Amino acid sequence: MRVLLGVLIAVSSYFAIAPLPTVSWQQALIPQRAIRLKRPNLAVNFDLKMQFIYGVKSQLLSGATHVAALRFSLNRLPSQFLVTTRKAIEIEADISKALSTDSQIHDFPELLEYAAIMEASSISGGSSTQALSELTSSMLKTKSFEELVSTELASTKATVMVLAGLPIIGAGLSLILGSQSLTWLLHSTGGHFCLLLGLTMESLGWIWVNRLLDRALKDNE
């Protein structure tokens, strides 16, 4: 019985100090090595993405072609960014397909929208600067919304951490005050029952809150 209580206390302590996950429950069950092999994710920061879009847009406004605008923008960015697109430009391959590939590699879905804008402009012969302006505006709004959600979830996580740690804090205070509460919990039948019930509820509550936060993150992706 004492061994079981020790294990449960260790598990509860882990839940009390472990950071909340930022990925969905289903994603956590997928081996990370398999993910990297199937779809390498070299995510880039938001500023780099905006620099790329604005670079292309500035060149299109000056009258350059899409290929020239892409070459200009890519030459001013790190060489590891959009490697597939760089190679496609060099060998005059399908740039739209290369952009689609890079959008997955760099977690940059706006590249797909840009590829569609580029194809539509090539077919119709019209300007694509207005569409790029709308794309950048959409990216800025999405970034602002993500920052708002992150701020709100950060306060929620802090509250959860405090509430989850209250039982441990209470046990520590009882020892400081000379209370025999831990002795009763560990050496009596009623204490064993209350301790098991408390640890079970603490663990279930922690898992439940994690699932709620995961769902909130998924709903806002």
Shape designation: rod-shaped
What integer value in Å does the Rg equal? 27 Å
Low-confidence parts: 15-39
SS strand fraction: under 5%
Q: Indicate how many domains the architecture comprises.
A: 2
Question: For this entry, what is the oligomeric state of its chains?
Answer: single chain
What is the β-strand count?
Answer: 0
**Helical stretch count?**
11
Helical coverage, percent range: over 70%
Would you kindly provide a written description of the structure presented here, covering whatever features stand out?
By secondary structure, the protein is an all-alpha fold. It has two domains: about 1-35 and about 145-220, no CATH class; about 45-125, no CATH class. It is built from eleven helices and no strands. It has helices at about 1-15, 25-30, 30-40, 45-60, 65-75, 85-90, 95-105, 110-125, 130-175, 180-185, 190-220. α10 crosses α11. The radius of gyration is 27 Å and the shape is rod-shaped. Residues about 15-40 have low confidence and may be disordered.
Question: Can I get a quick summary?
Answer:
This protein has helices at 2-17, 25-28, 32-38, 46-61, 66-75, 83-91, 95-105, 110-124, 129-176, 181-187, 189-219. By secondary structure, the protein is mostly helical.
